[in-house]
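Below is our example:
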Amino acid sequence: MRTISRKRRFLKWAGLVACVVLFLAMVITPWWYCRYTGQNCGGGLGAGVAGFEYDSGGFHPSVPRGWECRRRDRPTVFLLPESQGGYPVWLIFEVPLWIPLVVIGVPTFLAWRRDRRIPPGYCAKCGYDLTGNVSGRCSECGTPVPRQTAASSAIPQPPEDEGG
């Protein structure tokens, strides 16, 4: 059986946790939004989007500073970039949350699929059931199979009765 390195095991679990967090954020953000606004920059999550804003001149004084988390009155599907208080925001960067979910999710899914455990008595390459196979090769894909695997997975026969 293959051994999985600690690094790959960590990356698989970290990818799974990141996908769950991103999925939950996608589900929650149409009804809630959270943002942080500093003097010149701000960012947050809302309407299925992660965003970052930067203004070299500073945001308008009417824009509240610090953390703000609020429930929306009605769900919002997608917000377009806006300038704060009529002043232009010099840099707006927004990413819909489904993009990092796909970018992280596909390699995570492939890593989990690659490292799936094949039970004893099955072909290590294709997963075909080798029960009863004594030829030494997988009958599905042709991969050589150790004799002990093929023989140990053979169907046990009841002992023959020698008395007549």
Notes: The chain has a mean pLDDT of 79.
